[in-house]
Structures are given as structure tokens and as C-alpha cells.
Amino acid sequence: MVFQSIELEKRLERVRILENNVTYQFSMIAKLMDMDALAKLEGTGLNLTSYRLLKTVETFETMSIADLSRHMVTDSAQISRTATELGKRDLVEFQVDPTNKRRKLVVLAPAGIELMAKLAPVFKARRAAVEDLLGEAAIRDLHTHFTKLAAHFLNTP
Q1: Taking the alpha carbons of 63, 66, 70, 76 in that order, is the dihedral positive or negative?
Q2: Dihedral (Cα; 123, 125, 131, 133), 10-degree rounding
Q3: Fewer beta carbons under 10 A from the terminal one: N or C of the chain?
Q4: Tens digit of pLDDT for each residue in 61-88?
Q5: Is 74 exposed, middle or buried (0-12, 13-18, 19+ CB in 10 A)?
Q6: Helix or strand or coil: residue 61?
Q7: pLDDT digits (tens, 9 = 90+) for 27-62
Q8: What region holds the HTH marR-type domain (predicted)?
């Protein structure tokens, strides 16, 4: 019995070490948030990359694959495959960039607009729940710290 207690104490100490590692915590929270988002997307046929691509295009109205890749911090080949798949589902359409005929622009198709309108209240409620949980001051502080972290990791070789 004493041996079991000692082993449990060791395991608990190791958990504490991980929980005190801020990058580990960020990773865990990100995964939990992804799992929550996936649950909210159930029945739509969308994965997280597809939803984020649609949300980004909805926000900017039109974007090139290269701009989507940079903005979403995702490999351009994956963005291209995702956009192509969304195009096959009639959720996005492709237009030729008037300033560069070789570049395709992604825009929401009517079905994509409709799907995003259906999902909007679900994700608005999700955001509101997080904001209520943390409070306005913490949210403001998080935005400040996220900006610092993004700058740090963008400038780290």
C-alpha cells in the first residue's frame, strides 16, 4: 500500500510539472477547443480546416490561396486541397484575380453563405460563453498576450 502511495505521489508531481508548463497548457487548451469546435460542426461535413477557411473567406469576402495560407498559418497545398473540396461541395467559388490572371480568388458560394449563417449563432454562443467565463479584462489581456506570443514565434528561427 505504501508503494502504491509513493507511485501515485510521483505521478501527481509529474502532472503538476506539466500543468506548470505554459506551452503545454496552451497546447492542451487548443486541443480541447478544437474538440469542442468539431462537436459543433458535427453533421455539416466540415473539418476544422474547412470551417476556418470558410470563416476567413467570409470575413475578408475574397482571398487568394496564398493569402489564406499565410493568414491561417497552414500549408498552401492543404489550403488548396481544402478549397477545391469546398468548391466541389458548392460552398466556395473561384474567381480570377483581376490584377493577376494566374491567381485564383476564393469567395463564398450561396450555399457557403447559408451554411456560415447557420453556424454563426452556434459559434457566437461559444465565444460569449468563453467571454462570460473569463470576463472582459481577462479577454483584453489575452489579446495583448496573444499578440506578443505571435510576434515572438513569427520571429523565432
Answers
A1: positive
A2: -120
A3: C
A4: 999 999 999 999 999 999 999 999 999 9
A5: middle
A6: coil
A7: 889 999 999 999 999 999 999 999 999 999 999 999
A8: 19-151
